[in-house]
Amino acid sequence: MEPNNQFKTNQEIVWCKGCGNFGILVALQNAFKELKLNPDQILAFYGIGCHGHMANYLKINNFEGLHGRALPLATGAKLANKNLTVLAVAGDGDQLGEGGNHLIHAAKHNIDITCVLHNNQIYSLTVGQASPTSEKGFKTKSTPDGVFDQPINPVAISIAAGASFVARSFAGDVPHLTQTLIKAIQHPGFALVDILQPCVTLNYLNSFTWFKERIYKLEETGYQPDNKVKAFEKAQEWGEKIPLGIFYREERLTLEDALLPQIKKSLAEMSLETKINGLLSEFS
Ligand code: SF4
Q1: Residue of 50, 51, 131 to test ligand 1 pocket, by largest number of atoms within 8 Å of CB
Q2: CB 184 within 8 A of CB 87
Q3: Which CATH class is domain 21-282?
Q4: Which residues have a Cβ under 8 Å from the Cβ of 106 and sit 6 or more positions away?
Q5: Measured in angstroms, how far is the CA atom of residue 265 from the centroid of ligand 1?
Q6: Which atom in ligand 1 lies closest to the alpha carbon of residue 15?
Q7: Which of the four, 10, 11, 32, 212, has the lowest number of CB atoms within 10 Å?
Q8: pLDDT tens across 167-215, in order?
C-alpha cells in the first residue's frame, strides 16, 4: 500500500513536471496522516490558480470557489461546523491580490483555519503575469520593463493584521513543510503558512536552486516566536538570506469560540426540521 494512499485520488496530475505544487501535495497528505485525521473530517476551499487543481488530487472534502475567496468560504464552513479541520488553500495572486482583504480580516478575527499559501511569485494559470509577490525588477508578460513596485510580504502582513500563527516553509523541503503544516493545523486560531513554491515553467528567477542558496531555519538559530515586534523584524529579511519556520505564535480567543456560545447551536448541530420551522415562522 502506498504511504499516503488514504488521501490520494486516482486523478491524473496535470501540473508541469517538477512544479513546487507536488511537494505541497505530499506534505499535506503526510500532515493529515501524522495527525491521524479522517478524510471526512477535513474540508478545504480553494481559489483560482494552479494550486486549485489540488482539489482533484487530495481525497478529502474539497470546494473550489471564486478567485481570492477561499477564506470567506472557509470562515462560513468553520462557523457552521467547528469540529471540522478547515483549510483555505490559495495562491499568491489569488490570496494577496483578489483576496487580500479577506486575509487581513481572517487574521484579525482569529478564526481557526489554516491558510496554505502557494507562493510562486507569479500568476501561473494565466501563463505569466506579475503577481503581488513578484520581485522588484522581475520581467513578465505584464511587466516587460520589470516590476516597479515593492512585493507584498505575506508573513509581515499577516503578523501586522493579527494572525496568531505565522510561518514560512519551502515546497522543496517536504519534511520541514510537513512539520510546519502539522503545527499550523494544530494551532487553535488563524494560521498562515507562506510556502515558497517554485513555478518551474514561468518563474525563471525564484527557482529551487535560488531558494536553496538562501533559506535557513529559524528553529536552528534559537529564535523564539513569541514576540510580535521581533517577528515583524525577522519577516523583513529577504534576499541573501531567507528565514523559514514559525515567525510568530500566540493563543487567544477564536471567532467561533466568541460567537457560537451566543447562538447556542451551530448550523451543523441543528436538525433540518428546526431550521425549516424557524424560517417559516418568520413569514407566518
Ligand atoms: Fe506549476 Fe508553474 Fe506549471 Fe502552474 S505553470 S503547474 S505553478 S510549474
Answers
A1: 50
A2: no
A3: alpha beta
A4: 71, 74, 75, 88, 113, 115, 190
A5: 43
A6: 6
A7: 10
A8: 999 999 999 999 999 999 999 999 999 999 999 999 999 999 999 999 9
Q: How far is residue 107's CA from residue 84's CA, in Å, rounded to a whole number?
A: 19
Three-class secondary structure assignment of the chain:
CCCCHHHECCCCCCCCCCCCHHHHHHHHHHHHHHCCCCHHHEEEEECCCHHHHHHHCECCEEEECCCCCHHHHHHHHHHHCCCCEEEEEEEHHHHHHHCHHHHHHHHHHCCCCEEEEEECCCECCCCCECCCCCCCCCCCCCCCCCCCCCCCCHHHHHHHHCCCEEEEEECCCHHHHHHHHHHHHHCCCCEEEEEECCCCCCCCCCCHHHHHCCEEEHHHCCCCCCCHHHHHHHHCCCCCCEEEEEEEECCCCCHHHHHHHHHCCCHHHCCHHHHHHHHHHHCC
116 C-beta closer than 6 A to ligand 1: no
The residue contributing the CA closest to ligand 1 atom 6 is 15
Task: Dump pLDDT digits (tens) for 97-140.
Answer: 999 999 999 999 999 999 999 999 999 999 999 999 999 999 99
pTM, rounded to two decimals: 0.94
Mutate to test the pocket of ligand 1, among 17, 25, 202 (most ligand atoms within 8 A of CB): 202
Protein residue with its CA nearest to atom 7 in ligand 1: 199
Q: What are the residues whose beta carbons fall under 8 Å from the beta carbon of 31, sequence distance 6 or more? A: 178, 181, 182, 185
